[in-house]
Amino acid sequence: MRAIVISVLATALAGCAAKGPSAELQLSNECYQSTVDERVARFTDNFTTDDLNDLTSALKRHYLKVSHAMLLKQRANDISDPLGGIPASFELETAQESVIGSLKPIYMILNRSSVPQFVSTQVQQQMKDGLAICYGES
């Protein structure tokens, strides 16, 4: 009997840990990525090939960090799954710091002398606006 209870609990906990992003979160992730990518695409001619490649790579890493942090936030706030929310809430702060850290390479690229200031400002503003519009956060 004890083995059955342990097996059921282990299965339930594994199911909780494997919970993926909600449809709403997936849409928010896609919204943010497309919003920023569209702004970068608008200014493609203003970037050198190296700057554009570096920026694209840095943005991809940033998007992964943002989507991971938002998934942890979703899990931490999921009242239907309190067992899954507890570990997620502990990981959330680290993930948020990772998102902030992922901005540094982007800002370093956008502040290169080869990138026009107005392009840098436009992309940075779109990233900020994209977070607010797509996730409801700043």
Automatic annotation (TrEMBL):
Keywords: Signal. Residues 1-17 form the signal peptide. It comes from the Bacteria. This is Lipoprotein.
